[in-house]
Amino acid sequence: MRILVVGGAGYIGSHMCKLLAGAGHEVVVADNLGTGHREAVQWGPLVEVSIGDVAALGPVFDRYRFDAVMHFAAYSLVAESVTDPFKYYQNNVAATLALLRVMRDKGVARFVFSSTAAVFGEPQQELIDEAHPVVPINPYGASKLMVERVLADAAAAYGLRAVALRYFNAAGADPEGLIGESHEPESHLIPRLLRRAAGDTLDVKIFGSDYPTPDGTCIRDYIHVNDLCAAHLLALEYLDGHAGFHSFNLGNGTGYSVRQVVTAVEAVIGRSLGIESAARRPGDPARLVASSALAREVLGWRPALADLQTIIASAWRWHQAPKF
Ligand SMILES: NC(=O)c1ccc[n+]([C@@H]2O[C@H](COP(=O)([O-])OP(=O)(O)OC[C@H]3O[C@@H](n4cnc5c(N)ncnc54)[C@H](O)[C@@H]3O)[C@@H](O)[C@H]2O)c1
Asked: What is the residue-averaged pLDDT of the chain?
C-alpha cells in the first residue's frame, strides 16, 4: 500500500515509517517540522505542509493517490494545552478536520489515528479498558476525544474506515539507533532521565511521593514505540475487513512507579542519578494502566518489547548518540 504518514518526522511517526517500509509499504511523510525533525524522515519523501492547509494538501493527494492515512501530527503538552487551549483545538481538531475533508474529497477511506489515554481523565478502575468513561480533564485529552467523535460521525456519514489507538506512555527507540525520541521541551520521564544521564543539565524530580501506591510515587504504563507501531499495522489490516470507527487501548497492562523507572534507568546506565522528590503536580492521577485485552483479541496484537529494561536500553542507545 502507499501510505501517507502525517507527523512522520516526529517520534512515533518516524518509527512507523521504518516499520511500514520494512513491511513493504510505500511511505510519504507530511509534516510541517513544527516539533519534528527532517533527519528522522528516512523511509520516503517529505512533503513540508501543515495539515490545516487544504490548498497545499489536495495536490499531494492527487500526486500520490494514497491507500491509507496514518495521523500522528498533534501538539501534546498537557500543561500547555491548559494555558493555551486554542492552540490545541486549532492544531489537533481543526487541522485534522481539514485533513479528513481532503481525504473524503479525494476518496481515501482508511485512517489510523493517534489517540491517548488522556481521553479517559481520572481513572475509575485499576485497568482502564475501552468501556471506561471518557471524561478528559485537560484540553489536550478533550481535543483527541473530539477527533474520535468526528471519526465516528464521518464513518457513519461518508463511509470512512477509522481506528483510534489510545496510547498510554510511549517509550523506547529504534533498536538499531537510527531514530529516537527528541522532543523540545521534553516532558516524558524516561527521556528526561536519559538526557540527564547523558550529561544534560536538565532538572529531573519525582513529583509526589505520597500517592496511594506501594512506594508512594505515580504508576504509569510504558509501551515500546515499536509495539505501538505494530498495532498500527494490524489496525490497517483490520480496516480491510471492517467498516466503521473503532478504538483500542494500547499499553502493556503492567504499571511501573516513577521510582521503579528511576531504578530501572540507573540499572541500565550503571550508576545513580541522585534524583530527588518534590511536591505533587496538579492533575497527575496516582495510577494509569491500560487493559489492552480488546486489541489483543480483535487485532491479535502482542507487545514484543514489554520488559521495562528492554524499553529503557533501546532509548539509552539513542540518547548516547542522538542524531537530531
Ligand atoms: N509520546 C507519547 O507518549 C504519546 C502518548 C499518547 C498519544 N500520543 C500522540 O501520538 C502522536 C505522536 O506523538 P509524538 O510523541 O511522536 O509527537 P511529536 O511531536 O514527536 O510528533 C508530532 C509530529 O507532527 C508534526 N505536526 C504537528 N502539527 C502538525 C501540522 N499541523 N501539520 C503537519 N505536521 C504537524 C510535528 O512537526 C511532529 O513531527 C501525537 O498525536 C500524540 O498526541 C503520544
From this structure: 97
